[in-house]
Amino acid sequence: MNTARLFGLAFTCAVFAAGISVGGCGEQAAPVITGSGSAATYEGGFSAEGNTLTLDGNTKSVAGPPMTDIVVVVQDGESIQEAVQNAAPGTTIQVMPGTYHETVYIDKDGIRLVGVIDKGRRATLDGQGKLNDAILYSGNNIVVENFKITAYKGNGIMSQAGNNWEIRNNLIVDTGVYGIFPQLGQNGVVEHNIISGIEDAAIYVGMSDNVHVAYNDVFDSVAGIEIENSRHAIVEANRVYNNTGGILAFITPGLPIKTTYDVIIRNNFVVANNHPNFGAPGSTVSGIPAGTGILVMAADDVVIEGNIIRDNKTTGILITDHGNAANVTIDPESEPNPDRVKILNNTMLNNGYDTIGDVKALMALKMTSGHPDIVRVGKSQDSCIINRHRYVTVGLEDFGECDFTNTYQTANYLLAPVPPREIHGEDRGKIAYLGICAGCHTYTGRMIGPPVQIIQALYMDNPQGIADYIAEPTKKRDDYPEMPPQDYLDEATRLAVAEYMLQVKK
Ligand code: HEC
After folding, report:
1. What is the pLDDT of residues 381-399, one digit of tens each?
2. What does the alpha-carbon distance between residue 406 and residue 237 come to, in Å, rounded to a whole number?
3. In percent, how much of the chain has pLDDT > 90?
4. In the Cβ-directed half-sphere of 94, how many Cα atoms lie within 13 Å?
């Protein structure tokens, strides 16, 4: 039966049932109800071939045990960065409660940066609205826990190409563009953090693999939790509320890693994500309609299970391809459709009560009434749902019945510590360029920074000039903001990115 007609019928019955009893309605066949344990379990996803992590209670340890017994203590008034600089790989650095105004760069392996919490007082990194980033690291086997981070302009905790990380129990408040942003890493845990007031994504997993995002409290941001160009990720047991969009799994076109797949979003509270969008104009997240609970854009094999999704005014779950999304340019190398999306049992209540014009138009076209819990636009192949009768859906006609009902057998996608990632030659410049510079510079257009074409004309065959500038930018143009220093990139990477920038052609 055609779904649109199915919902039309149900609606008519409900209207009549409110007043008089009408013969016929009560005779509608009860739907088949599929319980969560009543069929096969999910077997898709990831095969770790013997390298799976052994669980240790609720906390997941992927960085391995401390590499050495060395412990250094940083007292209030001292510099954390100095301690990091003097530390041998494998050092645990404990930071006493107090206020620290600095940026911490970690470019060696095995550093465990641990805040000491004393009767609720934390080691607090305060950027005073002036500093760009709080903690940046490129090492492997890094632990960052127990800090409070506030008033930075760029990132709270960001990593570039480090594997085996644990970011845990941090409090990140009003901190610029990204709260926690691991990029290009494998095997990481982001858990028990409280994050709010972030202009782009509170938790942004970018171009990474084997990631677990759990037990975080994420609110008052544009995007709550983002799984972008990443694979084998589980997002579970998070509380995500009063953001513009709650939990997002998607592909951003144009990045060096072209896919997002194998993502399980389960047992989260996704509540009232209706915050007006305050993302930077032109950014991907600035296109998210306020009131989106869960968004799947172009990502494949996303399982949505056991979430409580309520009070999101546009819709509970929005599934879209690239073609229908705002602020997205198509990348011929990224497949634009969300395929094999699997919607299992979720508790959905009061979503879609004040939805956007596009959804209303789609509903009118499909003759669907009510407030939409789940909306699909664009193409999607081999997607499925169970118990669809529970929700008001639009665009799900070709979703089949799923042949499994739960993901109980997939505890996590984490691994015992993996070897460091190696990035060679030309890739180094390209990855830094696309991961960092392209956020502010496009080839021809004005973005946050001037067009790359202009920079190419200025610097032509002088990559060293760019490398020097970005380490210590000076104010050049009245009509642009200041460029933040990129001195956390080592010298070789700065030169590689400069060379890459000079030969970019589009
Ligand atoms: C957060 C935004 C931002 C990021 C990220 C960024 N830039 Fe910039 N960039 C700017 C802004 C703003 C200016 C203009 C500054 C001015 O004119 O005072 C600029 C200017 C420049 C210039 C022009 C210097 C000159 O002499 O006129 C170069 C070169 C440059 N950026 C290179 C880079 C490279 C390489 C990267 C990546 C490693 C990068 N930028 C990352 C914002 C950014």
Report:
1. 999 999 999 999 999 999 9
2. 15
3. 66
4. 9
Sign of CA dihedral 404, 410, 412, 416: negative
Contact 361, 404 (CB under 8 A): no
CB-CB contact of 237 with 265 (8 Å): no
Is any ligand 1 atom within 6 A of the Cβ of residue 119?
A: no
Q: Taking the mean position of all CA atoms in its chain, how far away is CA 365?
A: 32
Does 482 contact ligand 1 (Cβ within 6 A)?
A: yes
Q: Find, among 261, 194, 197, 257, the residue nearest to 223 by Cα.
A: 197
DSSP states along 370-407: S--SEEEES---S-EES-GGGS-EES-TT-EE-SEEE-
CB atoms < 10 A from the CB of 31, how many?
11
Task: Please tell me the distance from the alpha carbon of residue 388 to that of residue 396, in angstroms, as a whole number.
Answer: 9
pLDDT-based confidence at 487, cuts 50/70/90? confident
Structural domains of the chain ordered from first start? 3-29 (no CATH), 31-58+176-418 (no CATH), 65-163 (no CATH), 425-503 (1.10.760.10)
Determine whether 497 is exposed, middle or buried from the number of CB atoms within 10 Å of its CB (0-12, 13-18, 19+).
buried
Q: Is the dihedral of CA 422, 426, 431, 436 positive or negative?
A: positive
Ligand 1 mutation pick, 454, 458, 483, 494, max ligand atoms within 8 A of CB: 483
Q: Is the CB of 203 under 6 A from ligand 1?
A: no
476: left (phi over 0), alpha (psi -120 to 50) or beta: alpha
Calculate how far, in angstroms, residue 279's C-alpha sits from the geometric centre of ligand 1. 20
Residue 321 in this model has a pLDDT that exceeds 70 = yes
Residue 430 banded pLDDT, cuts 50, 70, 90 = confident
Task: Report whether residue 435 contacts ligand 1, using a CB cutoff of 6 Å.
Answer: no
H-type helices in 323-356, by residue range? none
- Give the pTM: 0.85
Residues 6+ apart with CB under 8 A from 334: 251, 253, 258, 259, 298, 322
Q: What is the rounded distance in angstroms from the CA atom of residue 494 to the CA atom of residue 2?
A: 58
pLDDT tens for 63-95 read 888 889 999 999 999 999 999 999 999 999 999
State whether the beta carbon of 483 lies less than 6 angstroms from ligand 1: yes
Distance, CA of 76 to CA of 98 (rounded, Å): 5
| Token output for 234 | 């589980």
